[in-house]
Amino acid sequence: MKVTGVLGTRSSGTTSRNVRTRRDLSCSSLIRRLGCALREGKISASELTSLYLKRIETKDDTLNAFTEVDKIGSIEQAKKVDARLAAGEALHILAGIPLAIKDNICRQGVSTTAGSTLLRKHLSTYDAEVVSGLKARDCVLLGQTNMDEFGMGNTTETGLGPPTRNPWNASHVPGGSSGGSAAAVAAQMCAGALGSDTGGSIRQPASFCGVVGLKPTYGTVSRHGLVAYCSSFDTIGPIGPTVEDVSYLFQAIKGDLKSMKYDTSLRRSGDRKPLSFLEESQLPSRPLQGRRFAVIAEALGPGVSTEVRSAFLESVKHIEGIGGIVDLVTSRTFQRGLPAYYVIALSEASSNLARFDGTRFGSASFTQQILESYTELRQDTLGEEVRRRILMGTYMLSSGYSDEYYTRAKCAQKQVCDELVGYLSNYDALLTPATPDLAYIVGEKTKNPLQMYAGDLMTVNINLSGLPAIVVRSCEPESNPSQRLPIGIQFIGKHFCENELLEIAHTFETSQNTRKKFPEDDMLSNL
Questions:
Q1: According to its UniProt record, which residues of this chain constitute the active site (predicted)?
Q2: 6, 74, 116, 373 - which has most CB atoms within 10 Å?
Q3: Cβ neighbours, 10 Å, residue 112
Q4: Domain count, the chain
């Protein structure tokens, strides 16, 4: 199918953009650069950790990306790495790399609140399996990052502390619910972070903050130790400055037969295609030659801002210019995904959050009747958005309504999944904008929940289908070079084919002429 009209006529040559122009900041992996510096003795893990802690101290009063910073523990971890490096041990590339963890992922002995007042005194008694994976590779864990309460939101304004701010423009939100993790990476307060994605909670913040976010195939990464929102969709994934950085984190946290302890990940480790990342200077002139992509036409329909649409079309033009074949396809189920997602997600949330009753979690005194204490606890400690979603979910599961809502939503989920998987049998990846709009102004969406829910339009169908997807920064339209807020493009891949998806995204990222990777100059550019 020849792409015309919406996307313009396919060009057989390169785009007008010079793909070999050197950018202000290289796309070279930050984690790889820091790992080499540690092994070459240019900097110690303790010094590197101290630099990041100082950065947090300087920036986080404004951005509010962290809920807790573990200064003592992170320095101790770094000293252990230094001792092992001094002894000549061969360590993992992530050894000594400072990372951050979203506040709904458990770390032993550390406060894990999921952004809720109800859990403000909760200390986790064990490590989530993904945290164990990072610790096994000697990562330095700096602290927990801010989030929307229980992951219910896409602005990171409903958590325990003040709203998190977007590092590119502090009057805008970073997205959510993993906004703290994305903001921390963009503001160079950590070299990478973990988030969780139920309906786009990694990918939307990645787009708003101009970083890379990967939502893996559902089941590839263990959910053990993740505070549940919707267990059918919850997926832990990495956020980093570049695709290569994200790939290192993904390889560390994905489940495998040898290391899995709990049945919260599928019994396969993903595709067996080895990862191969080429530097910009190593790329051929048309590195995506032979790759086939499909743009979902409905993702460019009403409700998509002019800026997002322009950036997306510029990115498609660039993909064609470096050899990719791009077709336009229609999706009859595209609009069904959003209502189906919210019916299923809120129904599961009402069930999952029933455990927070003050007996095992929370701080109910039970000086009154048990039911009164239970009601008072949840009324006083759960936020407005969480209570709204619990009420809607309980209603949709109630007698006489579950068939009308939940059963129909599950049927729609299967239709969405079948259609996307069908297209992916003919294409290497599907393309959509990451979000319908630019980052919102702080406070803009919290009073209008329906508008906030509509912001998940581009991402929820991927969760319904269990497919992997990655968001990287779009090409910027040449007509608007001063755009201050980043815009993301979403690549959707086949089940368990993360490596192939990462290579495609890396090629796109490395070959495009984008401006600054971070809002400020690279604080570690001398390494």
A1: 102 (charge relay system), 177 (charge relay system), 201 (acyl-ester intermediate)
A2: 116
A3: 24
A4: 1
Per DSSP, helices labelled H in 142-202 are 179-186
The pLDDT value given to residue 8: 52
Clarify whether 121 is annotated catalytic. no
Residue 447, both tokens: 């009073």
- Assigned domain for 303 exists: yes
Convert 151-172 to b/e letters by CB count within 10 Å (16 or more is b).
bbbbbbbbbbbebbbbbbbeeb
Q: Which two tokens stand for residue 335?
A: 């609009």
Calculate mean pLDDT across residues 277-288.
Answer: 88
Centroid of chain to Cα 327: 27
Residue 415 lies in a domain: yes
- Catalytic: 102? yes
- Please check whether residue 366 lies inside any domain of the structure: no
Residue pair 393/347 in contact by the 8 Å Cβ criterion: yes
pLDDT of residue 2: 40
Q: What are the φ/ψ torsions at residue 313 (nearest 5 degrees)?
A: -65, -35
Phi then psi dihedrals of residue 350, to 5 deg: -65, -30
Q: What would the pLDDT profile of 186-225 be if each residue is shown by its tens digit?
A: 999 999 999 999 999 999 999 999 999 999 999 999 999 9
Task: Output the pLDDT for position 368.
Answer: 58
Weakest mean pLDDT among 55-59, 100-104, 238-242, 514-518: 514-518
- What is the layout of strands, in order, in the sheet containing 469-473? 66-69, 140-145, 98-102, 192-197, 235-240, 212-215, 469-473, 488-492, 429-433, 292-296, 325-329
Which one has a higher pLDDT value, 513 or 17? 513
How far apart are alpha carbons 92 and 100 in whole angstroms?
Answer: 18
> 420 lies in which domain range?
30-256+268-337+405-511
**The two three-digit tokens of residue 323, written as one number:** 């050899």
178, 147 contact by CB (below 8 A):
yes
**Which of 427, 460, 462, 502 has its CA nearest to residue 251?**
502
Distances from the Cα of 464 to the Cαs of 117, 219, 457, in angstroms? 30, 13, 12
Q: Residue 114 and residue 96: Cα distance in Å, rounded?
A: 26
Q: From the candidates 74, 177, 269, 350, which is the catalytic residue?
A: 177
The average pLDDT across 410-417 equals 98
Checking if the pLDDT of 518 tops 90, the result is: no
Q: Which of 74, 178, 201, 247 is catalytic?
A: 201
Give pLDDT tens digits for 166-185.
999 999 999 999 999 999 99
Paired strand residues for 490 = 432, 471
Q: How does residue 251 score in pLDDT terms, banded at 50, 70 and 90?
A: very high
Identity of the residue numbered 437: D
Distance, in Å, from the CA atom of 202 to the CA atom of 237, rounded to the nearest integer, reads: 7
CATH code of the domain in which 421 resides: 3.90.1300.10
Residue 185 located in a structural domain: yes
**Which one from 29, 74, 102, 215 is the annotated catalytic residue?**
102
Answer yes or no: is pLDDT of 21 > 80. Answer: no
